[in-house]
Write a structure and sequence with these properties.
Layout lengths: L1 H13 L3 E3 L11 E3 L1 H20 L4 E4 L4 E2 L1 H7 L1 H4 L1 E5 L5 E5 L2 E4 L9 E4 L4 H5 L2 H8 L5 E10 L14 E11 L4 H18 L7 E5 L11 E9 L2 E12 L1 H10 L5 E2 L6 E2 L2 E8 H12 E6 L2 E6 L10 E5 L5 H17 L3 E3 L5 H10 L4 E5 L1 H6 L1 E6 L5 E5 L12
Parallel strand pairs: 3-9, 19-20, 19-21
Antiparallel strand pairs: 1-2, 4-8, 5-6, 7-8, 9-10, 10-16, 11-12, 12-13, 13-16, 14-15, 17-18, 21-22, 22-23
Bound molecules: adenosine-5'-triphosphate (ATP).
């Protein structure tokens, strides 16, 4: 199993999914750069998530808050004091090391100019709570959702995309009446499991861990970690936390702003409680890659392929002319490609090497379908459609091709 990490890291580099950050300068620990295919994979995951948790619901509002925030935000949230890991230094003594990246805003080096690269996206949502209530007058329960970068100066970044210093998160802060917190917690617990399955992760490889008293973050009354069976062990993929009214209360007090909400049912002023489903995007990419990586034998030949669910696959189909040196085939293949690309932009064209090699290349990056234009195409406008997983081929009319990609809509 250890081996599978090496295979995925090497495939990711070779085929343009993920590169080491600043590679030509020897790298920068805890940073990775996503190549064209990794970017496409990541964008697909973000879009699917946004669709499921924001667009398809009426009660969750999207947000894109600044990464740099007033330092008082982090004092109120508890991060300035508490977001630390124990570090053993040269003398063997243990000290608390704060994991926030500190910077100065503007030319001043004074303490008053200190800011931090946010270590979580969550606080951007709490400090905009009042804005959303004032602009949209949402009824409880409602939530805010945000996708964006977060930064943690991890003491020991490791395991490829698992423990990074620059990472991306998809988070929701869902505000409820205190009496309803368990109901919403259960709702999101189910939605998180559903999501995991929808993106092609085998639910058998994910385990819910009830985080015991004493091990939860200071703001949480209940936390479930969704752990994944990585090759290096069973470790956190996502978290679901009941943050109580801790954050809104803390920000109301520190900013001297009324962050309460007039309950439309009781006409009482209340501070809503909060359920937080938190998804790490890079860990999602890693889990999806690990799940998809498959080695098998097809027609007596060994092959490696990524069994992505079609919705997350970076490229949905590849179009080939059967032979490179036949102008009629090339012309027809280019026409099919151009027309199809208008409907499905995530397709590619390949006329390099023999057809078997082209199939292998597409298998290795997880392209669900290959479309070959051959001599029969010139006679009756049908093409060969080949399925990645089974290697099976069928003849399909060009006019019926787009309906094969209905899963994208
Ligand atoms: P861990 O215990 O693994 O350090 P955490 O409990 O600190 O994680 P949270 O603060 O709950 O993590 O962050 C929410 C999500 O962000 C995690 O579930 C994970 O998916 C992701 N995440 C957190 N830290 C990192 C990191 N250093 N690199 C990549 N993803 C991360």
């Amino acid at each position: 199993m250890e081996n599978s990490m090496e295979k995925i890291i090497s495939l990711s580099k070779r085929r343009g999914f993920v590169y080491q950050g600043s590679e030509i300068y020897g790298g920068l620990a805890g940073t990775y750069d996503y190549g064209p295919l990794g970017t496409a994979l990541k964008n697909n995951l973000k879009d699917l998530w946004w669709r499921k948790f924001v667009l398809e619901r009426d009660d969750i509002y999207g947000l894109d808050a600044a990464i740099l925030m007033n330092q008082d935000v982090w004092k109120a949230s508890g991060h300035t004091k508490g977001f630390a890991d124990p570090l053993v230094d040269q003398s063997g003594k243990t000290r608390q090391f704060n994991m926030m990246f500190q910077t100065h805003v503007g030319a001043s080096e004074e303490d008053s100019a200190v800011s931090y690269l946010r270590p979580e996206t969550a606080q951007g949502m709490f400090v905009n709570f009042k804005n959303i209530v004032d602009s949209f007058h949402p009824k409880l329960p409602f939530g805010l959702a945000q996708v964006g970068k977060a930064f943690r100066n991890e003491i020991a970044p490791r395991d490829f995309l698992f423990r990074l210093r620059e990472l991306e998160q998809l988070e929701i802060e869902y505000f409820v009446r205190e009496k309803d917190w368990e109901k919403s917690f259960e709702e999101f617990r189910k939605l998180m499991s559903q999501w995991i399955e929808e993106i092609g992760i085998n639910p058998k490889h994910v385990h819910e861990l009830e985080v015991p008293d004493g091990e939860r973050a200071h703001y949480s009354k209940r936390t479930i970690d969704f752990e994944f069976d990585y090759p290096f062990g069973r470790k956190e993929l996502y978290g679901l936390a009941y943050r109580t009214d801790f954050d809104l209360k803390a920000h109301a007090l520190a900013s001297n702003t009324d962050l309460s909400y007039v309950d439309e049912e009781t006409k009482e002023k209340i501070v809503p409680h909060c359920i937080e489903p938190s998804f790490g995007l890079d860990r999602t990419v890693l889990a999806v890659l690990l799940e998809a990586y498959t080695e098998d034998e097809l027609a007596g030949e060994k092959r490696t392929f990524l069994r992505f669910s079609p919705a997350v696959a970076p490229i949905k189909a590849a179009v080939f002319p059967l032979l490179k040196n036949k102008p009629d085939l090339i012309k027809k293949a280019e026409t099919v490609y151009k027309n199809l690309k208008k409907e499905i932009p995530e397709i590619t064209f390949d006329d390099n090497g023999n057809i078997g090699k082209r199939y292998r290349r597409q298998d290795e990056i997880g392209t669900p379908y290959c479309i070959t234009i051959d001599f029969e195409t010139l006679e009756n406008d049908s093409v060969t459609l080949r399925d990645r997983d089974s290697g099976k081929q069928e003849r399909v009319k060009i006019s019926e091709l787009t309906s094969k990609f209905d899963f994208l809509r």
